[in-house]
Amino acid sequence: MSATASPILLEAQGVEKRYDKFVALGGVNLKVRANTVHSVIGPNGAGKTTLFHMLTGTKQVSGGRILFDGHDVTREPDHRRVRRGMARSFQVTSLFLTLPVRENLRLAAQGVAPKKALDCWNAPEGRRSCADTVASVLERLGLARYADTPAGNLSHGQQRRLEVGMALAARPKAIFLDEPTSGMGIDDLEEMKRLIQGLKDEHTVVLIEHNMGIVMDISDTITVMQQGRVLAEGLPHEIRNDERVRSAYLGNMITGGKA
Ligand SMILES: Nc1ncnc2c1ncn2[C@@H]1O[C@H](COP(=O)(O)OP(=O)(O)OP(=O)(O)O)[C@@H](O)[C@H]1O
Predict the structure, then answer these.
(1) Which residues touch 33 (CB under 8 Å, ≥6 apart)?
(2) Which residue lies with its CA nearest to atom 1 of ligand 1?
(3) Distance from the CA of 49 to the center of ligand 1, in angstroms?
(4) What pLDDT, on a 0 to 100 scale, did the predictor assign at position 87?
(5) pTM score, two decimals?
(6) Which segments constitute the ABC transporter domain (predicted)?
(7) Range list for CATH 3.40.50.300 in the chain
(8) Domain 1-85+172-259 classified CATH 3.40.50.300?
(9) Segment 203-238, tens digit of pLDDT
C-alpha cells in the first residue's frame, strides 16, 4: 500500500492552544497516515512542540479535537493515550545510565502495562513476550552487542537511539520523535536516519526535525508550521519548491536532501 493510500491513524481538527492572550496554536489541522514518516517543520517558535504536547496529551488543548486510531482522545490524559498506542521518545535524562541497555528497554517495555510490571518475563500467551520485544528493539537500534553495557557508557548517538528504543519497547502504533538528531555527528545522523526510516514497517512516525537534509530524505509527508498555523503540507519535493515555505525560512534552509 502506498503512503498516500494508507488509512489515517491520527488526526488533529482545528487544534488551538492559548496561553492567556497568546495564541500558540491557531487551529491546526493535521492528518497522519499509518506507516508513514510525517514530519512537522517550521521556524523557531512556530508551535511544533506545542502541537506534539497536544497530540500526546502532555498538555490539554484550548479548542479543537484529536482523533487517534478511531477514538476521540482530546480529553484523555497522556497515560491513556500511551495505552492506545502513542509513544513519545524520552530525553537522555530519562535513561537509567547505570543500568545495562537491555534493562533500560525491559523497564520501558514494562511501562506499557504497570500492573504486569513484575510479570514482564511471563507475558500472556499469544502475545509477544517482553524478552522478544527487548531483543527485537535491540536489533532494530543496532545496539545488540551493547545489550549488557551500562547506558551511561554509550556514545551520544547511541544514547539517542536508545531513547527511541525506550519508546519502541512499549510497542506503540505511533511514535513521536522531537529532534532525535540534535547534537549528533555525521555517522550518528546516518544511523538515526536508517532507524527512523525502518520504523514505518511496523509503526507510524511523527517527527519534529530541524535537519532539513534528513527531513527531505526520510519523510513521506511534511507539514510546515508558522506562527501557530499550518503554512503548507505536501511531499518533500513540493515543500522544498514551495515559495511560501522558502520565504518563511528566508530561503536558506530548504536545500538539503535528495527528495
Ligand atoms: N507555557 C507557555 N506559556 C507561554 N507561551 C508558551 C508556552 N509554551 C510555549 N509558548 C510559546 O508558544 C510558541 C510556540 O512554542 P513551541 O515551543 O511550540 O515552538 P517550536 O516550533 O517547537 O519552536 P522550536 O523550534 O524553537 O523548538 C512560542 O512563541 C513559545 O514562546
Answers:
(1) 3, 4, 6, 7, 8, 9, 204, 220, 221
(2) 19
(3) 7
(4) 92
(5) 0.90
(6) 10-252
(7) 1-85+172-259
(8) yes
(9) 999 999 988 999 999 999 999 999 999 999 999 999
